[in-house]
Predict the 3D structure of the following.
Amino acid sequence: MKMTKLPWQQLMPETETFEQYLRKSPEPITSLVDLQPRYTNALSLFLHANSPFDILLTHCDESYTSFQLVESLVKELSKEISLPPVTFKGDYVSQGNVYRFDKTIDGLFNATENLVFDTWIEMNSLFGTVYQHNGIVHLQPGRIHQVNGGILMLSANAILSQPLMWFRLLKIIETGQYEWLSNDDNRSLPVCIHPMPMKIKLIIVGDRDNLAELEEMVPDLHQISIYGEIEHSLTLIDETTFVQWQSYLVDIAYKFSGMTIADDAWPVLIRHAARYNEDKLNLPLSPLFWQGYFKEVSLFSDDNICNQIALDTRAEAKLYRESYLLERIYDEFELDQILIDTENHVVGQINGLAVLSYPGHPRAIGEPSRITCIVHLGDGEVNDIERKVELAGNIHAKGLLIMQAFLLSELNLNQQFPLSASIVFEQSYSEVDGDSASLAELCALISAISEVPINQQLAITGSVDQFGNVQPIGGVNEKIEGFFTVCERRGLTGSQGVIIPASNQRHLSLNDEVINAVKEGQFHIWTVEHASEAIELLTSVKYREESSEIDLITLMQKRILQSIDTVDETPWYKRLLRLS
């Protein structure tokens, strides 16, 4: 058995290993290349003079800040590989009704930039326009002319919203020349305008869904392009990576808010980083997150210094602003409008944990949920009421079926299971999905069959596989804090707590209220690796013990045998008429 009660020190990121670096003031990062090794590799191949690829697909969020990050990497690598500046020049010369391009002269169509980017752009702004004024034809260059011979960076969303722009860009890249088109599909150009030579490299920035849509439009897209990903987290391997992350934050804080980071701010920043990433061992690099974070902190700091006081004040103010919905939800529990038992022992009832995301609300909310199970004579079917009424998704149904398969395998029956059961999330009126409740449902089913009560002072989360192994789930911090808040409002008993998968321990970065309660022995957190460990904690009865007749497996088998005997001894017509 590997169930473990966690000490309070393991409920947040461990910083002792890096203590010596927390007391130093790191220098701002001088190179972003080391933080993005995979993307740098793709970018180097893309920028190479003899590169076979003119399109770079970049997986990243489409924020202006992310575009700036890619721009910085391009400029940094351009210096390393000595990429020559753009020198394309030329202009159009009119000969009656014919406009010919002359690349021997300086003019309106000289390239001025090595790289230009736009998070959103319209067709005319990108490709330029042809218009007449007082009978004179004018050629207005677009952004693409500014960067002729260089790199154009666009968002996938802008391209998808204007499919014609996408196909025109592909044609320019394929043919190496730019052709003028009329702004009005019903009219031709007023004069004959010859094509002009154009050599551009295109970087497309987008999330996976948008990049997938581009591939649907051009099925061979990955054959004519190179793919790269901006990594939004840094795996904490050793002291070197930690110092790199520190230097990156120093640079971000100063660049976007003019702040310097004090030594006492680092432990708090590490906790917030682990909370944001839901992982102690992966530190977030998202420029969009840190930009907004430090700008907000600057409102609560003196002399533009990011210290512990400013960080704590910012966190308290943010929680207060966003807490109205949280308070109303927890009021419902306190006033018994949502029924949750946090003190007794009940057969077939368990406290599951869920994370709710409300549309338009910025914060995920942990909310305990009462799951109940009732067992009766039947054909062996376990009815998922949520699924029956179409309030549960496919993943939830999959988790329930896996749980049933494990239990039937453990009971090792040589005939059909003689009992039926119904499982439901009580007072649940919206759709639920995910398999994070399958461990709780399994424990409730075992309790209902064995008729052994479950300790309602405990709540549980986790999914199980067909061998009973407990698997990790998401939102573990919010789930723990949600149940803790309900217990705290009713009064902590010293025996309340939460059971989580052992593999979720690396994701813990809990708030001070929970940590202090665990430190004082008023609240507890256990980790388990197998379903048998969880049910033993919940019932205080051994799951399987060869020398005992009161273990859970034995109690379930006895209940099943009694059910079989009842079925065999009672004539079918009496059962049908409910006669004794």
About this structure: The radius of gyration is 32 Å. The chain has a mean pLDDT of 90. The first strand starts at residue 4 and ends at 5.
